[in-house]
Design a protein that fits this description.
Largest interface: A-B, 24 and 18 residues
Order of helices and strands of chain A: EEEHEEHEHHHHEHEHEEHH
Mean pLDDT of chain B: 88
Distance between the termini of chain B: 52 Å
CATH topology of chain B: ABC transporter involved in vitamin B12 uptake, BtuC
Mean pLDDT of chain A: 91
Oligomer: heterodimer
Structural class of chain A: alpha/beta
Low-confidence stretches of chain B: none
Strand order of the largest sheet of chain A: 6-7-8-3-9-10
Order of helices and strands of chain B: HHHHEEHHHHHHH
CATH architecture of chain B: Orthogonal Bundle
Shape of chain B: globular
Number of helices of chain A: 10
Helix content of chain A: 25-40%
Shape of chain A: globular
Strand order of the largest sheet of chain B: 1-2
Largest sheet of chain A: 6 strands, mixed
Strand content of chain B: under 5%
Number of strands of chain B: 2
Number of helices of chain B: 11
Number of domains of chain B: 1
Strand content of chain A: 25-35%
Distance between the termini of chain A: 33 Å
Largest sheet of chain B: 2 strands, antiparallel
Low-confidence stretches of chain A: none
CATH class of chain B: Mainly Alpha
Radius of gyration of chain A: 17 Å
Structural class of chain B: mainly alpha
């Protein structure tokens, strides 16, 4: 089966510093794939390279279309939603305006309105606070809002950068449960970058392990979770 | 007491000029987080265009409308040609760009229309407004237009999708791009709108100060003072700031001994410095907290 997202020989640079050294991986349509690795391994850089937010060479194909050289906003318009590290919440705007912004590239007013209702079903807390300034939400609520905002695009692929960062364990569980549901029911393919490997492997079907800008391990999430050697040497638990 | 009321009224009348200019300044600040020093000169140039159109026989409102549209397009063109290439350059490079633009626009206007003073008509007439000698119908009309502009801007930013996109692009460019907003064009749009608002300001100011290439020099500084006082992030604050600066200027001229016309301008500058020291975000502005 051909992959929906196909990354080959990806090299990325911050100024003179090379952060990715020929990374290659694929993501099948409908899958929930996780990229694991320690701090500084290149996980975030990989997501940023997909969205053209860092200088990169190699090849990134999405549904056969090459992404390298396109602008960030054009890539988003192809149906790739990116929930960045730090969530990127528009803190001075209301919760509802944040959701509207997620759908800013869409023209179907009725569809947008019904999608906002759908998000309120996924995340009831957002409905309670829909007129509130997004900056007043708690960290967990802001993360839910960031996911909801990304889904408002009706993406085919959603990129999540450390969604568990800074959240209480219970909230992380809830968030991951909803991500699994979105993946199964709304047929959104998901690529999630995580440091919380244990939880990510529970959720994902496919997993890759990155070390210093290269893929060092790949396979079924359950296989990797059950392989003690890999766990101890790369994932640290 | 009557003297005080009269001076406040007169202050509101001149304040309308500053309010209008401050509105244009806030528009551009929202888009690029920079003060455009050439804003006043662009407004002056637009006013000359309107004057020229009327010389060619168009009615006031025809010339007004065409000028606003031309200024909007002109603002976008200036951004695309001059400032888009400087988008990633340091602030000082941009400031140099603004100053260059100031000089270029000023000299071009002088070259085309020369430096003699011209009269610019007002659509509101210049009779006393409601029997008051202090406010003319023109100044009242100017206050009305300024408030109308403010209302339109409010609705635009609050209730339209493009307004929402512009706010998002100004607040968090990276996040805005991640929801698919072309932030570069939003900046160009901000320039266009600022130039259009500036042209309206210029056409309203010209009947008061007369039309000539240096007509905006003083006005721009008062406009800056108004925008800083009201808060550079708030169109509403800019308008209130404009009126306050106008009132303040008049009262200072009347009540503080030794402050005549010559010292009015330093007072505006002193006000800028005072506000920046005491309340950098202005009266109605949002304080922007940055994590370091």
């Amino acid at each position: 089966m051909t992959a929906m997202l196909n990354v080959k020989d990806l090299r990325a640079y911050y100024g003179q510093v090379q952060a990715l050294h020929g990374l290659a991986f694929g993501l099948k349509e409908g899958s929930l794939t996780t990229l694991l690795g320690a701090n500084g391994a290149g996980k975030t850089t990989t997501l940023r390279a997909i969205c053209s937010m860092v200088r990169a060479t190699g090849s990134i194909e999405f549904d056969g279309a090459s992404l390298l050289g396109r602008s960030t906003e054009n890539i988003v318009r192809l149906g790739i939603a990116h929930v960045p590290q730090g969530r990127g919440t528009f803190t001075a705007m209301t919760v509802e305006e944040n959701l509207q912004l997620g759908a800013i590239t869409r023209k179907d007013k009725a569809g947008i309105a019904s999608d906002i209702e759908r998000m309120y079903n996924h995340f009831p807390v957002l409905k309670q606070r829909h007129t509130q300034q997004a900056g007043t939400l708690s960290g967990g609520e802001q993360q839910m809002l960031a996911v909801a905002r990304a889904l408002m695009l009706r993406p085919r692929l959603m990129l999540l950068d450390e969604p568990s960062f800074g959240l209480a364990p219970l909230i992380v569980r809830e968030l991951f449960r909803i991500l699994g549901k979105i993946n199964r029911e709304d047929k959104v393919s998901i690529l999630v970058v995580e440091q919380n490997a244990e939880l990510a492997l529970e959720l994902a079907d496919q997993a890759y392990v990155i070390e210093t800008g290269r893929i060092v391990m790949s396979g079924n999430a359950s296989e990797i979770a059950n392989n003690e050697d890999i766990r101890k040497s790369y994932l640290g638990y | 007491m009557e003297l005080l009321i009269n001076q406040v009224l007169a202050g509101i009348a001149t304040g309308a000029i500053y309010a209008c200019m401050a509105l244009a300044i806030v528009m551009i600040y929202q888009a690029i987080e920079n003060l455009n020093f050439a804003q006043g000169e662009m407004a002056m140039f637009s006013t000359f265009v309107a004057w020229q159109l009327m010389q060619w026989g168009l009615s006031y409102w025809e010339a007004f409308l065409i000028t606003v549209v031309l200024s909007f397009v002109g603002g976008i063109v200036i951004e695309r040609l001059l400032f888009k290439p400087l988008a990633k350059a340091p602030i000082l490079t941009n400031v140099a760009g603004f100053i260059a633009l100031f000089a270029i626009v000023n000299s071009c206007a002088g070259l085309i229309w020369d430096f003699t003073i011209k009269e610019f008509p007002t659509p509101f007439g210049s009779a006393p407004f409601l029997g008051s000698q202090l406010i003319s119908t023109h100044q009242a009309g100017m206050i009305g237009v300024t408030l109308l502009l403010l209302l339109l801007l409010f609705f635009f930013f609050r209730f339209t999708r493009i307004g929402l996109a512009m706010r998002a692009a100004a607040a968090l460019p990276e996040s805005a791009r991640l929801v698919g907003i072309n932030t570069s064009w939003m900046i160009a749009l901000g320039w266009g709108m600022a130039a259009a608002i500036g042209s309206i300001a210029g056409m309203l100011i010209a009947p008061v100060v007369f039309l000539e290439p240096n007509m905006m020099g003083g006005v721009l500084i008062y406009g800056f003072a108004a925008a800083v006082l009201g808060g550079l992030t708030s169109p509403f604050g800019a308008v209130i700031g404009g009126f306050l600066v106008g009132i303040f200027e008049n009262l200072a001229g009347t009540y503080i001994p030794g402050v005549g016309n010559e010292l009015k301008l330093p007072i505006a500058l002193a006000l800028i410095i005072f506000v920046l020291v005491v309340r950098p975000a202005g009266l109605f502005g949002r304080a922007i907290v940055k994590r370091v």
